[in-house]
Amino acid sequence: MSSLLDEGSSPPDNKAGSEHKGNETSESYFPKLKDNNHDRRRFLFMIGAIIACVILGVVLITIIVVLVYSQSSSSLKEGLAVVPQEISFNPHDPSSYENEVAALNKFMLEYNKFKSGKEVVECSDDKPAPDGKFCYFDNSWIYSICPPVSDWNYGSMNPCVLLSLWKVSKSIQVYDKYEELPKTMPDKLKDHIWVRYNENSEKMPKNIWVSCTNEERYTDPARGFPAYYLPHPNSSDYLPPLVGVVLNLEGKANNSEEIECKLWAKNINHKIDKFATVKFTVLVKSD
Q1: How far apart are alpha carbons 262 and 5 in whole angstroms?
Q2: What does residue 262 show for φ and ψ, rounded to 5 degrees?
Q3: 120-170 per-position pLDDT tens digit
Q4: Contact between 262 and 182 (Cβ < 8 Å)
Q5: Which of 222, 169, 167, 226 is nearest to 199 (CA)?
Q6: pTM for the whole thing?
Q7: Dmax of the chain from CA atoms?
């Protein structure tokens, strides 16, 4: 009987089993879902960190570029500037002044290119550049005393430097009379101006004069910057005027010598007008 009951009984209900199996499935699914959410959050965090690093890198690069540009701009300061700015050499060792010679040659590259065009004109004291044009600078003045073929004289105790008159915002007034020269002006410069004054029929050349300590010679004939080069025109082709200076460093071996160069004009006050002075250091090494 029991066997008949067993045989006639309905098959066992699998609902509970299926429910149990479903529970197992859902329980196994949700941990995976949680893991996926965790991985997604970790992925998003990593992406955010990478983006933050990129932004920080861009900011740092921008800061570095600004600093470098500001330093390079300051090296070409308004007013009187010098090339090269750092001088340390042994006149008996050509390898010791390669940097100085390279700096001078590089600086003169643009000046060595022939300047022609409608904007460039020949000027003189009585013939300044008309509006919209600028004065041509003759670099043969420089090479007459500072020949590049002789390594700018760095194989001697009389090396060359170049002085450049960069943009000056102040309107500079030249001396009109010899009597206007200040007592503080070096006597050697006064003597030169006196000669030029007499050669010019007792008329003062319209120059912004230059003096340097440890000087030997200057670019002929001006020993300064002709006033017709100012004001600076707004042209990408314009090249500022130069003065070549041959230094006298005899007896200065193994000493660090500070050289000071100044502009001289009627309304320049060296205590106030910082653009009118440039200082640099020269170290001559001996064998």
Answers
A1: 126
A2: -135, 150
A3: 888 888 888 888 888 888 888 899 899 999 999 999 999 999 999 987 878
A4: no
A5: 222
A6: 0.71
A7: 153
